[in-house]
Amino acid sequence: MEKKFVFDEDIALVETGCGKVRGYFYDDVYIFKGIPYAKAKRFHAPEPVEPWEGVFEATSYGYVCPLLNLPKPNGELLVPHRYWVLNEDCQNLNIWTPGLDGEKRPVMVWLHGGGFTDGSSIEQIAYEGGNMCKLGQVVVVSVNHRLNVLGYCDLSPFGVEYANSGNAGTDDLVAALKWVHDNIERFGGDPENVIIFGQSGGGAKVTTLLQTPAADGLYAKGINMSGVIGEDLLMDGLGNGEKLGRALMEELKVDDVKALETVPYDLLAAAYNKVMPDLKNAGEYVGGSPYVNAYYKGEPIKNGFRKETEHVPLIVGSVFGEFNSFAPTPYKRSGLTKEEGIKIVEQEVGKEESKELIRLFQKTYAERNPVDIMTMDFMFRRPEIDYIRERSKCSGRVWSYLFNLDMNFDGGRTPWHCADIPYFFHNTQYAPYTQEEGVTERVEKLIFDSVMAFAKTGNPENPEVPKWDACTPDKESSLVIGRETSVRENFDHELIPVLEKCMGPVYARNMEKQMKNVQH
Q1: What is the side-by-side strand order in the sheet with 20-22?
Q2: H/E element, 341
Q3: Cα separation, 359 vs 105, whole angstroms
């Protein structure tokens, strides 16, 4: 079927608060790329963009934030990527909309992964917003913002002008949401129905915005995908950045913090990479994550969810294997008997030590071979259980899910971190590993319809899923998504602590290999 493309002076032209922007029309979607929503000096708060004359051509993606280390492409079959031009002038966003007609559609604002140090709005090919926009009849927005030392480096001891430099990246996100609130109606979206959603670091950004008063009123709902990371992998910035700032100045041979604002980024990044390890080993502040201060109230498990966000419904979930499924295993899962799987676990953990682990695993996952203990995640799932419990205490509107669908990859592999993203965006066509006849289309529809129901009504229940209740402090009702999908109550709560106890040392030994195996 032919896909219509139009780019001329009369199509996809919108008047924003700063001036006119022109995108293009393709395959029933109006597309705008690289629209600036703010500008900022290094380490300072974002400022409004200066209005422009004429028309801004929004047909090319904008700059993405520079990274501390240039990525070496690998693992592209696991997580297909796209690399883009790096520049500090990275406060821009992209929009996909079904119509420029004044109709108030839900607005899906995507917050990219990569922790608070890496990634971009277009880094993964599955981030494309066209299918979600067209099939869901929603407006999709993806956002670039400052990261790493540019976005999360506290220099407050050096002057009031740096009071919130430790949260400059989150300040960018708030500026983007303000831009959406003020302009999205002109793109066919409803500024009162903005859904912030993200995966991994993007999910963590959803939580960060919940804990940031400046973001109040700029979003209505949230979806946190594999973003409850816990202090094992990511913790709030505490203390202050005085020692970090002085170490950077010493390494760069400058005696004024103002010089850090203008030193070329590659030199700043090299200096940071050199001084950071020793500071971190000494327990000092090193940045790279949100900084607890008057602007950001701190992660909610330790500090509590803010009462001002109790009305915000959330979907929170993770993936069966997460990081543990990135690395190839020394065994082939296909054709492996349960007895052989048990033997592998016993050899790794010990026969007596693994008895209770195997018993609980078989009780929890009767459909799985016990060998899948070897790649099952607890680093995300353990803090997620606590997160959902605490959130449900202050809000009766939090839904839990687990993506439990194995992938047709390397003879069959448990799902890994990022494996669920194509299903949420209705973009499985871009991810070869998802292709399985009779399964892919069904699971994609189930997930996508749930996301769209949530966006439109605040409740993810729909005809594609079993009855799926919101969680309570005593009952986590999880939608476990696989070849067969079901809702299970507190289904893994006994298993996860035992898994962590038995497999923690094994995962610690393998983590470096797992994390280097793929960009994510």
Answers
A1: 13-15, 20-22, 55-57
A2: helix 338-349
A3: 48
Strands 29-36 and 24-26: antiparallel
* Cβ 107 vs Cβ 141: under 8 Å: yes
HSE at residue 412, side-chain half, CA atoms within 13 A, is: 13
Q: How far is CA 277 from CA 192, 273, 274, 280, 314, in A?
A: 44, 7, 7, 5, 36
What's the rounded mean pLDDT across residues 411-430? 96
Say if CB 107 and CB 93 are below 8 A apart: no
Which one-letter DSSP state was computed for residue 247?
H
- Cα-based distances in Å from 491 to 46, 269, 362, 402: 44, 45, 12, 11
User: What six digits make up the tokens of 340?
Assistant: 């052989």
Instruction: Look up tokens 């090193």; give the residue.
Output: 286
pLDDT of residue 429: 96
Give me the residue label for tokens 């052989």.
340
How does strand 477-481 pair with strand 398-403? parallel
| Helix ranges, 284-337 (H) | 300-303
| CA pair distance 24, 100, nearest whole angstrom | 12
Give mean pLDDT, residues 74-93: 94
Are 143 and 114 a contacting pair, CB within 8 Å? no
Q: How many whole angstroms separate alpha carbon 170 and alpha carbon 6?
A: 36
Distance of CA 333 to the CA centre of its chain: 29
Rg of the chain over all Cα atoms, to the nearest angstrom: 23
Residue 330: pLDDT over 60 = yes
233 vs 253, which has greater pLDDT? 253
Q: What is the 3-state secondary structure (H, E, C) of 399-426?
A: EEEEECCCECCCCCECCECCCCHHHHHC
- Contact by Cβ (8 Å): 40, 146: yes
Between the alpha carbon of residue 343 and those of residues 99, 368, 495, the distances in Å are 58, 15, 19
Q: In what order do the strands lie in the sheet with 314-319?
A: 5-6, 24-26, 29-36, 92-97, 139-143, 105-111, 189-199, 221-225, 314-319, 398-403, 477-481, 486-489
- pLDDT by residue (tens digit) across 151-165? 999 999 999 999 999
Average pLDDT over residues 35-46: 98
pLDDT digits (tens, 9 = 90+) for 278-322: 999 999 999 999 999 999 999 999 999 999 999 999 999 999 999
Compute the CA torsion angle 127, 130, 132, 137 (nearest 10 deg).
Answer: 150
Structure tokens at 38: 């703010």
Q: In a 3-state reduction of DSSP, which class is residue 279?
A: helix
Domains of the chain, each with CATH number or no CATH: 5-235+292-312 (3.40.50.1820), 242-281 (no CATH), 317-516 (3.40.50.1820)
What is the phi/psi pair of residue 403, to 5°? -85, 110
* Mean pLDDT over each residue of the chain, to the nearest integer: 95
The distance in angstroms from the start CA to the end CA of the chain is 34
